[in-house]
Amino acid sequence: MESSWLETRWARPLYLAFAFCLALGLLQAIKLYLRRLRLLRDLCPFPAPPTHWFYGHQKLLQDGKIEKLEELVEKYPCAFPYWVGPFQAFFYIYDPDYAKTFLGRTDPKSKYLYKFLIPCLGNGLVNLEGSKWFQHRCLLTPGFNVNILKSYIKVMAHSVNTMLGKWEKICGTQDTVVEVFEHINLMTLDVLMKCAFSQETNCQISSNHDLYVKTTFEASKINFYRLYSFLHHHDIIFKFSPQGHRLQELVKILHQYTEKVIQDRKKLLKDEKKHGNTQKRKDQDYLDIILSAQAENGNSFSDTDLRSEVNTFILAGHDTMAGSISWLLYHLALNPEHQERCRQEIRGILRDRSSITWDQLGEMSYTTMCIKESLRLAPPIPSISRELSKPITFPDGRSLPAGITVVLSIWGLHHNSAIWENPKVFDPLRFSQENSDQRHTHSFLPFSAGPRNCIGQHFAMVKLKVAIALILLHFKVSPDPTRPLVFLHQIVLKPKNGVHLHLKKLP
Ligand code: HEM
Which PROSITE patterns does this entry report, sorted A to Z (predicted)? Predict the structure, then answer.
């Protein structure tokens, strides 16, 4: 009788392979189960919203709706655990004492969010850790010194005026509804390319750069989706998913853009050298600083480092700026009395309207309070996260062990009614000297705090002031009641359907 295939010579290794895979699978399942038990034990001092055993709280924040987060902040003082699937939990905090303890340490960035950003950003300042981060941070900080910032004011004003010229063409003398986010987005890209890379892209006029802007928007959406979809945390599963596939296409577009920036500059430097013009540029821009760092520390600053830092700066600097200027304009449109007060202040300072100086920016105290209040109500980066490298004990005595992913919700902190009375109301006087002095040092953190705070924060404040001063001098803004602004809570805060405002040219 013929033997069945089970009894053939090669059946034995097959059995063994099968048993091996089964054992491996079982081991993995036990590991995951123990991980769940450990997490449940570690997080039990902190009450959590009701959870689904498999999805956890995944559905609560995945669609980017912020109202849900605000409800949770109201209901659970200080912090709550947020389960993403059965085996992973993020620990949300939004209390100033918790924030102070958390930011006073040097825990590494959380591998979830920041690892997902690596395909887009590379390993630049946002993602680096340890001595390499410190080396890059020291190297790049001089790119934001006062003299350099002063030299940027004129460049910024020029780009804002280009945008205002477009608005004048659209509106004429009529009161017209304009979707301003797209215009502001291109304007901030224009400023960044000119200030950081001395590149005259003309991106506000030519439509060649729309693709880059749209690509950053879509890439950010996919990265955020991935954050709250635990199955996609796994690199291989994500890579073969439709979203992973799409992200690879988007990353190619982003990298082609930055590669062109670098190659253009290298070509310029080569040409300068060829013509004997090797003198250092008077105002070194950000790219000069990185390139000279590379020339001096070739071994420790590779071409990949160079690309990562350029990517990081374009992405970290332009998306956040577009949001912050748009939200400020929107808040001033909703609050005409504050808009008018800012306009009066700016008119008083910039009498002849032709130019803005560093000292004049320092005089805009009411406008600065409005900027801060807008950054409080709509922080462009709504949360940041770290993975605890050692146990942490919060001031109320509750502790967490190493390994937990902690998310500091800047949005939650800024809308926490335990710190801010009527948190939804736009009230710039919260930022008067007297009121600020009485508040906890860690209750307002749009740029984070501690060693890993935002390296571009002074650049951002200068640009916000220049932009709002010029806009308010030339236009009156009011909201379009049919299209209120809806925020999408992603890695960087986004408008769901644009920012629609009535613009009226002032005489
Ligand atoms: C209103 C505008 C901005 C806001 C609200 C903002 C906010 C932040 C926050 C909250 C962080 C901390 C991130 C974390 O800990 O994970 C950060 C880091 C950073 N920001 Fe900004 N940012 C703004 C503008 C800019 C600009 C204009 C640039 C560059 C031109 C920039 C470059 C960076 C970089 C490189 C880091 C990483 C710093 C490090 O880890 O050493 N940001 N920013």
Answer: CYTOCHROME_P450
pLDDT tens digits along 205-218: 876 666 777 788 78
pTM for this predicted structure = 0.89
Please state the atom number of ligand 1 nearest to the C-alpha of residue 323: 1
Q: Is 454 annotated as a binding residue?
A: yes
Amino acid letter for position 146: V
Average pLDDT, the chain: 89
To test the pocket of ligand 1, the residue of 110, 454, 457, 462 to mutate (highest count of ligand atoms within 8 Å of its CB) is 454
Question: Tell me, what's the pLDDT at 279?
Answer: 56
**Measured in angstroms, how far is the CA atom of residue 23 from the centroid of ligand 1?**
46
Angle subtended by helix axes 286-296 and 130-140, to nearest 10: 130
Q: Atom 20 in ligand 1: which residue has the minimum CA distance?
A: 454
Distance 135 CA to ligand 1 centre (A): 17
Number of CB atoms found within 10 A of residue 504's CB: 14
Q: How far is CA 233 from CA 25, 116, 122, 188, 403, in A?
A: 18, 8, 18, 32, 17
Q: For the chain, which domains are there?
A: 45-505 (1.10.630.10)
Residue having the nearest C-alpha atom to atom 9 of ligand 1? 447
* Residues 6+ away with beta carbon under 8 Å from 394: 78, 79, 97, 98, 101
